[in-house]
């Protein structure tokens, strides 16, 4: 059973150690947990655990979305949007209770995960959102739209569903712009509750539930009308000395700033997604250690984990925009094959075009088709 306490209960502040403008915590199976720190809300903040009558923080070593997912579930806050590191919500004080947390993502409590050699500058945080994309063929940024309400997930009916509505979903999930607003269970039919119907957004709202809609659970739909979206993800480019259109240091555009990608867990599956997004053919190499030189400024992505089938890099799992424990000496790069795909109505051919130019004016340029 969940018991929520407001932090206007000064007894909690007397118990500990934390100055924050807004905190709340949950007792779940006897294990209290709260989100605290500068800018925290009920569903976003620095993760803290209550043990031996003392509140303490969680170290960010290995902290990822699976761990954040457990926190969000324990707090009844929907899905994990970001797993934040490096004391994003400010450093805590006093005890550090957990380090090297490893969750599968299905646990009911953070202390059910496998679990101190760090300081408060490494305190872990989370941002949770009451929305997710699910269904057959779904990715982090494409799928059937589902809303978390009254402790359960439910779908959205496609009555009046359009690109403005999809735009709000994509923004809420940090997934770039909306490419398609899909009706008629494009990602398969959901089950259980249908939470929203007749959704009407201007496109500027920060959350889908801020849009006009019928009352939660009031609808005239069936799951054959579940709404879906496909979002663009964030734009990417390849940069650095000796880079080409299809090889270079991977950079992502977010919040109007270009930033790099850390090479933690960087592999050919991740590179494959980059090459696909840039229409550069299959990936040949996934390069680490700033192979195309170190970038500058922001490091946007870390712990990127792709299956290789995603259409854009930010559709893969990662720690959260700006959440990292890297330096630019770990900037990731790729080399793509640069193959060009020719499509026709009857068959598909894969060919590579190579253009060889000479410095002699009178010699014709050679176009060699392989």
Automatic annotation (TrEMBL):
The chain crosses the membrane at residues 12-35. The keyword Ubl conjugation does not apply. PANTHER family: DELETED IN MALIGNANT BRAIN TUMORS 1 PROTEIN, SCAVENGER RECEPTOR DOMAIN-CONTAINING. SUPFAM superfamilies: SRCR-like. Disulfide bonds join 103-113, 157-221, 170-231, 201-211, 262-326, 275-336, 306-316. Keywords: Disulfide bond, Glycoprotein, Membrane, Repeat, Secreted, Signal, Transmembrane, Transmembrane helix. InterPro entries: SRCR, SRCR-like_dom_sf. This is SRCR domain-containing protein. Its main location: secreted. Residues 33-129, 131-232, 236-337 form the SRCR domain. Pfam families: SRCR. It is found in: Secreted. GO terms for cellular component: membrane.
């Amino acid at each position: 059973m969940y018991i929520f306490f407001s932090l206007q209960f000064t007894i909690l502040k007397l118990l500990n150690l934390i100055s924050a403008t807004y905190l709340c915590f949950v007792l779940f199976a006897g294990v209290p947990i709260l989100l605290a720190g500068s800018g925290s809300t009920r569903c976003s903040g620095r993760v803290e655990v209550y043990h031996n009558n003392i509140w303490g923080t969680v170290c960010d070593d290995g902290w990822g979305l699976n761990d954040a997912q457990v926190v969000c579930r324990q707090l009844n806050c929907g899905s994990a949007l970001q797993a934040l590191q490096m004391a994003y919500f400010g450093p805590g004080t006093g005890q550090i209770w957990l380090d090297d947390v490893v969750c599968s993502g299905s646990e009911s409590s953070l202390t059910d995960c496998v679990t101190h050699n760090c300081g408060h500058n490494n305190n872990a945080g989370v941002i949770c959102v009451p929305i997710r994309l699910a269904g057959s063929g779904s990715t982090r940024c494409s799928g059937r739209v589902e809303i978390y309400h009254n402790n359960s997930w439910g779908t959205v009916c496609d009555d009046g569903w359009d690109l403005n509505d999809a735009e709000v979903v994509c923004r809420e999930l940090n997934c770039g712009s909306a490419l398609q607003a899909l009706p008629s269970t494009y990602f398969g039919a959901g089950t259980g509750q249908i939470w929203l119907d007749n959704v009407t957004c201007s496109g500027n709202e920060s959350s889908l539930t801020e849009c006009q809609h019928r009352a939660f659970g009031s609808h005239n739909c069936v799951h054959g009308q579940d709404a879906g979206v496909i979002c663009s993800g964030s734009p990417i480019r390849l940069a650095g000395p000796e880079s080409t259109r299809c090889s270079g240091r991977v950079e992502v555009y977010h919040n109007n700033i270009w930033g790099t990608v850390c090479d933690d867990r960087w592999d050919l599956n991740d590179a494959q997604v980059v090459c696909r997004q840039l229409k550069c053919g299959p990936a040949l190499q996934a390069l680490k250690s700033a192979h195309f030189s170190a970038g500058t400024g922001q490091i946007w992505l870390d712990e990127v984990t792709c299956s290789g089938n995603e259409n854009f890099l930010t559709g893969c799992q990662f720690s959260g925009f700006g959440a990292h424990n890297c330096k630019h000496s770990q900037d990731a790069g790729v080399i793509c094959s640069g193959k060009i795909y020719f499509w026709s109505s009857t068959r598909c051919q894969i060919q590579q075009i190579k253009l060889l130019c000479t410095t002699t004016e009178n010699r014709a340029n050679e176009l060699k088709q392989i």
